[in-house]
Specification:
The protein has five helices and five strands. The chain has about 180 residues and is an alpha+beta fold. It has one domain. A five-stranded mixed sheet has the order 1-2-5-3-4, covered by helices on one side. The two termini are about 15 Å apart. The mean pLDDT is about 95. The structure holds iron/sulfur cluster. The site of iron/sulfur cluster has 14 residues, from loops.
């Protein structure tokens, strides 16, 4: 089966319903761009910097990030629109972020089991273990989800290039994640 057919078959299964799936050319990056975006990560507004193997500085070096991103030619963009949780409901937001991350992780694992080399990337740190084992070794490297921005990808710009408007809504939030293959 062709790579996109493998992913089409997997994402068509009932357990992966409720999400939108779009195929697109993979983004490109370079070490300088990774360094630039990682400066924003280091401000640690999300609280994930230096706490999981999915986020810098643990995820990989700037050079490795560019190599990983640039070795793939295609991306499956995964998204889901959720009614906006109340601003003070951090748990609800965490729940939906986790749901999106679990979705791409499960797709990624199944696709690998069918021979498709891929890397799942999401927003924020890897949440598979609840509390990441960082800086001790990753417990489940094949379940790890990597931060998109930490890999030198400006998600808003990239989605715009694909004709996807990344907009903020008052009463809903749309979360995005990628599977690069
Ligand atoms: S799989 Fe577990 S140990 Fe590995 S990066 Fe994710 S949360 Fe951390």
């Amino acid at each position: 089966m062709m790579p996109e057919d493998i992913l089409r078959e997997i994402t068509g299964r009932p357990e992966f319903g409720g999400f939108s799936y779009t195929f697109a050319p993979a983004p490109r990056t370079e070490p300088d761009r990774v360094r630039e975006l990682r400066k924003l990560c280091a401000e640690n507004k999300c609280g994930c910097y230096g706490t999981t193997w999915g986020c810098p500085p643990g995820s990989c070096s700037e050079e490795e990030a560019a190599d990983i991103v640039n070795r793939f030619s295609r991306t499956l963009i995964v998204s889901r629109r959720y009614p906006m949780p109340p601003a003070d409901d951090a748990k609800a937001f965490e729940h939906i972020s986790r749901e999106v991350q679990n979705n791409i992780r499960n797709i990624s694992v199944l696709a690998r089991s069918e021979g498709l080399d891929n890397v799942p990337m999401g927003d924020g740190g890897c949440t598979y273990c609840g509390k990441c084992n960082y800086p001790e070794p990753c417990r489940y490297p094949d379940r790890k989800v990597i931060s998109i921005s930490g890999m030198g990808i400006d998600m808003e710009k990239y989605l715009g290039e694909q004709g996807i408007k990344f907009s903020f809504e008052k009463d809903a939030v749309t979360l995005y994640a990628f599977i690069m293959f």
